[in-house]
Amino acid sequence: MNITHLTSRVMLATLNISVWRARRFDTRATQEVEAKHEAKDIGRFNKRLLTDGATSYKEVCAIGNRARALFDSHSLDYDQLGVRLLPTAVYMDVAEKLRALRDQFDAATAQFLADYPRLKDEARVALNGLFDEADYPTEAELRRKFGVRFSVLPFPDASQFGIDLPPDVLHGIREEMDAKVLGAVKTANNDLVSRLYEAVQHFANRLYGEGNVRLDVADKVRELSALLPRLNFSDDPVLTEILAKTQEQLACYTGAQLEDDPLLRLNVAERAMEIEAQMAAFMGGPPPTLTREGDMPMLQLLAA
């Protein structure tokens, strides 16, 4: 595996999304509950500082969740907390979409800040005796609690690591860096395969299952089959084969085609099981069994 080639096809990326939690632990309320029930250390009373009617706050959170989902789906696991691998093949698409989501986030935050005095007054009424002015930040403090920050850094490249150390020490550091790079590639590839494995397993279960097949049964597999090849920055030959088989043998069918043809469903389900077994072997896990609960009703239906 050409490590220098790998480092030019992927980067380290982080996405930090900050949102005011709008919750606060209430010591007094907790003590009152414990005293009433003559209990100690059995729970914590965490109060919501905004009512269900705080739609502008909910919108900020929803946009933040969409940004996180986009970033996580287009990046891969990395052995460092908060850092993920972002293949260069998807960088432009991800960066553009995150910029748009950040603009939406900022606009929604501005709307929430404009609503904040009113929402606090509504919470004052709803919380009644539990309301505490000290739980609420000032508008200036609140503004600093919201933000979306997307950052990228180069993937570690031992060949570019030149510092003033004795040659033997530097050689050892570079070897250690190369080993960590290979470990990171394995972690990323297993993340990629595990996503597809889960989708294909669910796909096969639904095809084997008794009863009507929902039209969206193939949607997740089709979606991943379009995305995951772009995340395969290592060009691992086995992984490439798995992705190609999934596209050619599973993702080529629509839910409508599968719903209308029981024989096709069985045939595609068997192919899905074969691909599932190949993925399990790739990840070092045991292959799934080739029969599942629900197989017999399908076979009986086909034989009828």
Detail the topology: elements first, then pairings.
Blueprint: H1 3-7, E1 10-18, E2 23-25, H2 27-37, E3 46-48, H3 55-73, E4 84-87, H4 88-127, H5 139-143, E5 147-154, H6 167-208, H7 219-231, H8 237-249, H9 255-260, H10 262-283, H11 295-303
Antiparallel strand pairs: 1-4, 1-5, 2-3
Helix pairs in contact: 3-4, 6-7, 6-10, 7-8, 8-10
Verbal overview:
With 304 residues, the chain is mainly alpha-helical. 61% of the residues lie in helices and 9% in strands. Helix 8 packs antiparallel against helix 10. The C terminus is likely disordered. This is DUF3150 domain-containing protein. It comes from Cupriavidus taiwanensis. Keywords: Plasmid.
**Helix-strand string:** HEEHEHEHHEHHHHHH
Which consecutive residue ranges, at least 5 long each, have pLDDT under 50? 286-304
What is the terminal-to-terminal distance? 53 Å
> What's the total number of strands?
5
Biggest sheet overview? 3 strands, antiparallel
Number of helices: 11
| Arithmetic mean pLDDT | 85
Radius of gyration: 26 Å
Question: Could you say how many structural domains there are in total?
Answer: 2
Helix content: 55-70%
The helix-and-strand class reads mainly alpha
Strand order of the largest sheet: 4-1-5
Beta-strand content bin:
5-15%
Shape category = globular
Protein name: DUF3150 domain-containing protein
Keywords: Plasmid
